[in-house]
Amino acid sequence: MRSRAWESLLKLGVTYSLVMILASLALGVTYREVSKAYLSSLPLDKSLLASYYLSLMHGHALVAGALLVTTLLVITYLLMKSGVLSEGDLMGLRKAMVVLVIGSLAAVVLLTYKGLVVATNYVGLGSLGMANEALFDGDSVVREGIYGVSHLLLGIGVTWYVIKLMKASLRLGKS
Fold first, then answer.
1. For the whole model, what pTM was predicted?
2. Which residues of 61-87 are buried (b: 16+ CB within 10 A; e: fewer)?
3. What number of other Cβ atoms are within 10 A of residue 165's Cβ?
4. For residue 86, which phi and psi values (nearest 5 degrees)?
5. Domain ranges in the chain?
6. d(Cα 169, Cα 175) in Å, to the nearest integer?
7. CB-count exposure of residue 52 (10 Å: 0-12, 13-18, 19+)
């Protein structure tokens, strides 16, 4: 049984997961090289502090971008093969996946931006707080608003997707 909605959802999820796996590898290299170039002259404790956000990029891209999406696709596939997901369910799941992907991508891009700004400004500004304030030209409202929206989209996408899967799995239990 081939479903256009399933193929569309699968294409979106697999493509995004593969892109995020490659991105996580590139972000790991970026962390290493930026830390070496900008922070090697600092004592170890200050270097670790200044590279903190950079160190998170690789893992966030891998987990939020690839592992989460892949896990949701596997669960979706199992429920689809069990016959509990309709074409309408799959279309709704694709919409939720789009929101999840946008939120995940925004969060990883913003974390990368934050990591790069903090690491490259830490030496000149002398503290993590001051380097953090350099984000978005020091506009804390814009900074917090953008970070909040990205995480909100990610949370809405994941929650929406999981709720749709839970409703489908309840139908499985009733049959």
1. 0.89
2. bbbbbbebbbebbeebeebbeeebbee
3. 20
4. -85, 170
5. 4-170
6. 10
7. middle
| Tokens of residue 135, six digits | 């984000």
| The token pair that represents 30 in the structure block | 């970026």
Amino acid, single-letter form, for residue 98: V
- CB atoms inside a 10 Å sphere around CB 174: 6
- Compute the distance between CA of residue 117 and CA of residue 68 in angstroms, rounded to an integer: 27
Place of tokens 């991508």: 105
Q: Rounded to whole angstroms, how far apart are CA atoms 105 and 161?
A: 17
Task: Please state the length of the chain.
Answer: 175
Q: What is the pLDDT of residues 140-170, one digit of tens each?
A: 888 889 999 999 999 999 999 999 999 988 8
Render pLDDT for 132-147 as a digit per residue (tens, 0 to 9).
677 788 788 888 899 9
| Amino acid occupying residue 100 | L
Cα(108)–Cα(101) distance, integer angstroms: 11
Residue 143, CA distances (Å) to 35, 74, 114, 146 in order: 23, 35, 10, 5
Nearest 5°: CA angle at 162, between 156 and 163? Answer: 85
